Amino acid sequence: MVISTIEEGRESSAWDIPVTMAEEDMESGSESEFDTAPPVHPVPTMQGAFEESMNETMNDDEPEVPDRYSKADSVTRRKMLLEQQEYERTVAGRWKQKPGEKFHPLWKLVAQISFGMHLLQQGLAKSDEEVLKILQTHVDEVDGFLERTTEDFDLAQNDINERIRYLKLPLEHGQVFDQMLADRPFRVAIVEGNEKIEHIIDRTAAAMNDALKDVQKGLDATRELAKYMTRVDKQWEDRTEEHDSVYLAMIGNTEGWTRAFLTLQSKGGHLRKALVQLGTIVAEMQRRAGAASRKNLAS
């Protein structure tokens, strides 16, 4: 089985809740033993995230129900983001760090991936096939997060760019615009429209900032995974042809994920600049509307 990478563009089941490697695939140990002495993770920086993910799985008897954003496309997610009464993240609850959790979901997911590779390398799995199935699920989840976040960033960027293009036009003809602002109904319409734009800016910025926090966590975790994969290469010289294929595919995943996370950070930077530009345009329109209103009162 070859574990696919995000760059192959396949459909992903990104929001399925994975079964933990330790629970399913350790040859020794029971749940009670895990409670007192969890397995040692091969990446020390992931030990805490790994233990938290194990505890969540063992203590959660009911499968997590996908939230209302899980199956929504990017257009629907953006519509929800802008129209909901109070801000609520629309990238699906799985990626939101819940109260009481010490570790980000992406850290826990990557901790499971590295532990799965550890099981294969050490020959500790009951079934290599089952480990590979679980690894594939985890890979799909990371791919899904990256795909959805990229879609959301691209759609937001296009939306903000279009609003900038549209709103810049009256300011490029400032004298005509100021004359039009002398008409009170037009002035009121501009002010009300600007309030809606400010709401869009605020919601877009909030979603962007949350997503960029997730992206940084994912990038940090992926870099730790990449270090582990480099180290395990030297310790796994006798791997089978199938294991070698899995290893090479996972190396491809870490490289592809790193590039994707960095690209998302770049997209976030471009979106932030566009939001500032749009905010500046709105502020200038508000200033001109206010000046026109005061002039009208004085006349």
Account of the 3D structure:
Residues 23-45 are annotated as: Disordered. Residues 23-34 have a biased composition (Acidic residues). This protein has 299 residues and is mostly helical. It is 72% helix and 0% strand. The chain is built from nine helices and no strands. It has helices spanning 21-25, 31-36, 47-59, 74-83, 105-122, 128-172, 174-180, 184-235, 241-298. It is elongated.
Which keywords apply here?
299 residues; 9 helices; single chain
How much helix, percentage-wise, in residues? over 70%
Report the end-to-end length measured between terminal Cα atoms.
79 Å
Low-confidence stretches: 5-20, 23-34
Average pLDDT confidence is 85
Q: What is the count of DSSP helices, taking H or I runs of 4+ residues?
A: 9
Radius of gyration computed on alpha carbons:
25 Å
Based on Cα principal axes, name the global outline: elongated
Number-wise, the strands total 0
Biggest β-sheet: count, sense, barrel? none
- Strand % is under 5%
Instruction: Determine the structural class based on helices, strands and strand pairing.
Output: mainly alpha
- H/E topology pattern: HHHHHHHHH
Region (Disordered): 23-45
Biased composition (Acidic residues): 23-34
